[in-house]
# Entry
Amino acid sequence: MRNLLSSLALALCLAAPVSAQQFIPLWPDGKIPNATQIKVEELVANERVQSVMIPGMFEYMPNAELFNGTAVVICPGGAYSILSRQKEGLDVAKAYNLMGVAAYVLNYRLPHTANVDVSYKAPLQDALRAVRKVRERALSWPKSSGKVGIIGFSAGGHLATTAGTLFRQDWPNIGDALDTLSCRPDFMILVYPVISMQQGLTHQGSRDNLLGKTPSQELIDLFSNEKQVTPQTPPTLLIHASDDMTVSVANSLRFYEALIANRVRAAMHIFTRGGHGFGPTNRGEIASWVELSREWLMRNELITDPNNPNPPVVRPQMPARPGVSATISASAPAPAR
# Structure
């Protein structure tokens, strides 16, 4: 019954008209790092962004009575070739607004466009800057949890995990006040993510678009995020379907193993059916993933229930033996501080 009600609520949410409050550029005029002097036209067709002229984010704020002070940066997928801004951006923002979460849909630069110098740096620069930009905005909110997470879909999941593992890179620094704010996301939610750039595991189109046709092994390893996990990697929720024929579920499995090996809090839900590119949806068993993510956020004290803002503290427990059914869930203890 709970999943049915959640699916109905999600369906109503996705059907409701919602407008972005504003578009927020990530960088000051003339200070976009890793940019050429070539001007490109912003191309959008059928809500799919084909080139980005001004990297920024679309802000979606929840109703004031629901707002719990947590925020997410949403990274749409599209194989680093396009941005699926509707299904993996706007629709996701609507769903998380219902949880009381401020949502920022990232309009990140695509590696192949003429206004980008070094292809593989640009998306990460924009994602890390977005986390800092949201932290800056949160300073003026009447209520803030101090938590800024990141959500990524498909290649956007690769970008999200890169932000969660390579956040110490100085690539987004431009010498302004935002450089002093943390660019490490406080949590990650990864939905059918590309994780690895290793041959035989990666999504080849995403790798080619990000790293080029003949990348060095050093670059491949750097952007194979299962190799970059440390105890400082943020708590993570992974969502995938076993029958995903576009991005192998092995990507999520490898990343989950690396998280557990490094004692990072992690949970994973593998659905029997769902394919690829389902986004927030009300069809089949995958309809529950948004609700699962809400419960995970609450269990990890990253959001509060709008109907019960002071719930009893519930600590996630490591099960004695992880299950082997279609849905797998486990949590590792937090690393020692």
